[in-house]
C-alpha cells in the first residue's frame, strides 16, 4: 500500500549549504553518471547532440539573485533534488504502490516494475524532484544512492551519495536526521537550517543552510579612501574640453 | 500544467458519459428496447472511451491494471475502481432494460450513485494537489459534478432540468475562475519560500539549471497561449452555457437539441483545456515563472 509509514527508524537525507555552494554542477554530473549505469533504468537523454537536447536528471542546480534592502545583490547557487519528505505527497497519490517511503531509513523510492508512468507523483511534488524518463516511461527520482550507501563492495569513504562524494566545496552533507548528534543534525542546529516551502506541509527531511551573515559591505577595503576621485571639477585642459563640449 | 489532449478528452467525455448514466439510472420510467440501447451506447462510449483515452497518457499502459490496487490511499486508484464498478452495474441495469424489458430500479440508483462518485473521484485527483493552488479548492469537485449533471441532463433530453443545471454550472464555472485567479497568491508559496532566501531580500531567478527544456518544464510550466485566456473563457462560456440555453429555450426539436449538445460539449472542452493550461504548478516558481504576485 502507498500509505506513508507513521515513523521511520532513521531519517537519511542531505544538508545543502547555500553559503559554500559554488554552482559548479559537479553534483549534477556525478549523480547522472552514477545513476544512469547502476540500480534501475538508465537516465536517458533525448536528442543529446542535436539542436533540442533534453534528458532526465535527479539533481539540478538553479541560481538565484537576492537583492537585499541595502547593499549589493548576491547570487546563490541552489542544488535541488528529492527532499525525502516525511509527509511525501508523491507517495500517497500513487495508484499502483510503486512509489513508497522506506520504514528503515525514510528514503522515498520508486519500484520501477510497478510504475505505470501516469506522472501524478511528479504533479504532487512541489519541488520538481521527479522526472518521467522519456525512453523508459517510468518515474525517476533521487534514491539517495541507496545502491552506494549500503554497498559493502565500495570502500567506506565511497558509501555516501555520489553528489556528496564529489562536491568540491563541501556544500553537501549526508547523514541521519533522526540522530540529534549526527553531523547533519548539528549543522542544521548550529546554522539555522531551514525547509523549502514549509507552507506546503511536506515535512522535507533535506535541509538547506542559509548564507552566513556578511560583514558590512561598505568597509570592503582599507585602500578605498585612497581610491576616491581627487578632482570633483575638471581643471586645466580637461576643464577647457568640458566647457568647449558644453558650448557645442 | 500541460493540457494533454488525452486527459482533456478523458475528463470531459467521461464526465458527460457518467452524467448521462446518472440520469438513466434514476429515471423512474426509463426507455426500453432500441431507444435504451442507443442511450446506453452513447453513455458507455463517452464514459468508457474517456477512460480508455486516459490510458494513452501513461508511460507504461501495459501495466494499467496495477492502478486498481491502491484504493485506500490514492484518488487515481479510487477513480479506476469506482469507474469500473459504475460501468459494470450500469451495464447490468442496461442489459435488463434492453434485453429483458425489466426495470430493476435499485440497481439503477446504485449505478447512478457510483457514476456520480466516479466524477467526484476524478475531480479529487486534481483537487488534492496542493502544488496547483488553482485546483486545490472545494469548488473543483462542485464544478466537475455540476458540469457532469448538466451535460448528462442535456444528453438525456431533460430540457427543463438541463436548462437549470447548465445555468448553475455556468455560475460555478465563473466563480471557479474568479477564485482560481487568486489561488496562487493566496497559497503563500512564492520564490522566497521555495528557496528560503526570501528572508534576505527580493529573490529573482538568475540562471536556469539547464539551457534546454526538460520534463518539468514541458509538463508543469506550460505557458503557451495564456495571453488568450480571457478570450477563450468568453468563448467557452458562450458555447458551454449561453448558446445551449438559448437553443433549449426555443421550441424543442431534435436538430436544435443536437446543436445544443454539440455547442455545450465544444464549450466544455475549451473550458477543460483552460483548466489545465491556466493552472500554475508551484515548481514553476523555481524557474522564475508565475511571479506576478
What's a quick, concise take on this entry?
The complex is a heterodimer of chains A (248) and B (293). With 248 residues, chain A is of the alpha+beta class.
Q: Helicity level of chain A, as a percent range?
A: 10-25%
What is the percentage of strand-forming residues of chain A? 15-25%
Shape of chain B: globular
- What is the total tally of β strands of chain B? 1
Task: State the low-pLDDT regions of chain A, or none.
Answer: none
Please give the radius of gyration of chain B in angstroms: 21 Å
The portion of residues forming beta strands of chain B comes to under 5%
Outline the low-pLDDT stretches of chain B.
none
Report the major sheet of chain A.
Answer: 3 strands, mixed
Oligomer: heterodimer
Outline the fold blueprint.
The complex is a heterodimer of chains A (248) and B (293).
Chain A: E1 12-17, H1 26-36, E2 45-46, E3 54-55, E4 59-67, E5 74-81, H2 89-92, E6 99-101, E7 108-110, H3 120-124, E8 131-132, E9 139-140, H4 146-149, H5 162-166, E10 172-176, H6 183-191, E11 207-209, H7 236-247
Parallel strand pairs in A: 1-11
Antiparallel strand pairs in A: 1-10, 2-3, 4-5, 6-7, 8-9
Chain B: H1 5-26, H2 33-55, H3 75-100, H4 105-127, H5 139-155, H6 159-180, H7 183-187, H8 191-195, E1 202-207, H9 215-220, H10 229-249, H11 254-277, H12 283-286
